[in-house]
Amino acid sequence: MALINIATHEIHCKIVYYGIGYCGKTTNLQHVHRSINPNARGDMLSIATETERTLFFDFLPLDLGTVHGFRTRFHLYTVPGQILYERTRLAVLNGADGIVFVTDSQAEKFEENVQSISELEMNMRRIGKDMTTFPLVMQWNKRDMPNALPVPVLERYLNRRRVPSFEAIASDGRGVFATLRAISKNVMAQL
Fold first, then answer.
1. Element (H or E) spanning 98, and its range?
2. Which helix (H) or strand (E) element contains residue 120?
3. Which of 32, 97, 145, 169 sits CB 3.0–4.6 Å from 13 for a disulfide?
4. What is the pLDDT along the chain (191 residues), one digit of tens a residue?
5. Looking at the record's lineage, which domain of life comes first (predicted)?
């Protein structure tokens, strides 16, 4: 749920990058953080778990305009992808205004991706969110890998809602901002 700060005339929106461990969630956020003018973004913070980290930073987009005279400020989060951190993922999802589901396109990661999207749907039900209307975009990451599944296969089995999807190679920034723009616009439309 977006938070409105009357004093600063800002609307704060939370976007969560969700997916399996090492699929590229952190790489997406690091690329965005490096690429945005330091005056338009906050610091990148990391909350370490034993084997992964949850990242957070916020930024104020300059090109999406205002909503009823309020500037929008987006806070980007990642969730830890490993199975044992399900409670942490649920906590990070709480209060989200939009989700980017980052998929590791490699064939050997397919089952993990299927389990992760199923868990996302279950967690959203747990926090009372309707996935049929909730802002969501899919990112098919690691498209440069020789064993990347064809996009039509990913679309068929992972994108049942037919939400916007983007091919990406987050390690070199390809598709990162297209994905972020799409989820930001989707969240803004919900406001």
1. strand 98-104
2. helix 110-126
3. 97
4. 678 888 887 888 999 999 999 999 989 998 998 898 888 778 777 766 666 565 565 555 544 567 778 888 888 998 887 766 777 888 889 999 999 999 999 999 999 999 999 999 999 999 999 999 999 999 999 999 999 999 999 999 999 999 999 999 999 999 999 999 999 999 988 87
5. Bacteria
Please report, for residues 14, 39, 83, 163, the alpha-carbon distance to residue 173 in angstroms, rounded to integers and kept in the order given: 21, 21, 27, 21
For residue 53, list its beta bridge partners: 48
Nearest alpha-carbon partner for 76 in 114, 119, 27: 27
Task: Determine the Cα angle at 61 with ends 71 and 13, to 5°.
Answer: 65
Evaluate the CA torsion angle 69, 136, 55, 153 in order and state its sign: negative
Nearest 5 degrees, angle CA 28-CA 30-CA 33? 110
Read off the DSSP letter of residue 85: G
Alpha carbon distance 103, 21 (integer Å): 10
CB atoms under 10 Å from CB of 6, counted, come to: 7
Residue 14: strand pairing partners: 75
Looking only at the bridges linking them, the beta strands covering 66-67 and 70-78 are antiparallel
